[in-house]
Amino acid sequence: MRLVTVVGARPQFIKAAAFSREIAQMRSEGGRAIDEVIVHTGQHYDQNMSAVFFQELDIPEPGYHLGVGSGLHGEQTGRMLQEIEKVLVKEKPDVLLVYGDTNSTLAGALAASKLHIPVAHVEAGLRSFNRRMPEETNRVLADHLSKLLFCPTDQSVENLRREGIEHGVHQVGDIMFDSMRHYRARVEKAPRALAALGLASKSFLLATVHRAENTDRAENLREIFDAFAEMQARYPVVVALHPRTRKFLEAHGIAVAAGVRLLEPLSYLEMIELEAHARMILTDSGGVQKEAFFVGTPCLTLREETEWVETVASGANRICGASRERILAGFAALEEGGASGARFDAAPYGRGDAAARIARRLLELA
Hints:
The protein is α/β, with parallel strands linked by helices. The protein has helices at 10-28, 51-56, 73-91, 103-114, 134-145, 154-162, 175-189, 193-197, 212-215, 218-231, 243-252, 268-277, 286-295, 309-313, 324-338, 354-365, and strands at residues 2-7, 35-40, 64-65, 95-99, 119-122, 148-151, 169-171, 205-208, 237-240, 260-263, 280-283, 299-301, 317-319.
């Protein structure tokens, strides 16, 4: 089977690493082979957001690097669509594989569907039900263009059923759980980030902020960093800062308190280590919410909803939005033992064998 995989953002690199590792293992064991060609759109193009991930996670070198870079949503997606189509015409794959909910996901799915190439979507069926999020539009459209829909949870299968999508749907578990299990074992053997940053386990708060709904709105970003300023009186707040967030902090003239430490984007292994040792995680990232759950660290979500409803139902994650008052209330509740009854049980996300199950389904299609 010939497969073209489209990636462009760091969460997709993490998922692609698990799948590429699985198909390499299948080949080494003499099983049926999947010949994968990776297309990197360049949606994340910063060294710390892109190249370092391929090196650290042992992802095969992309066959194509489109170098699209940043831009308005329509402009960026249009350039990707144009370049991906050229690759597909040349490579003639049996299937195109996309991950998640980025502009790279949508562009890949659109390009393949117009060329009548079957689309396989990993992380299908996720819904925040907030159509103001560009990611929601991307994931809904990708699902409706896909022939194979690989869902991480029972809820994602149900979301598709409600939209009339029932054929080609497979609940395979969460491929990010595959990655977490594999790379956390490596981190535990050779930890480095905690010592390098001079941090003690469970004595700091870890934060990420990058969603457009927060970075593009001065009032949201200010409320979040005002909350961080108050929380740093108890514990240092370490922010793994996305480049666009740094730009908007400066553009909006938002002051950062002395106890709030801004870091350059971290590698995946560094991030896993800090997530596991943080006292609490504050994030608007869907992936980081889930990683917090996998490593057993309480989480405050800086959005009004989450796709990962299982983490909230378990008591491990609280929805706080971009409200200083609600963030501080959530922090106080968790500090007072509000997470003591949380169930950090990854069962809703499978057994850590999603990549193998996806590979088997793809081979059945061939």
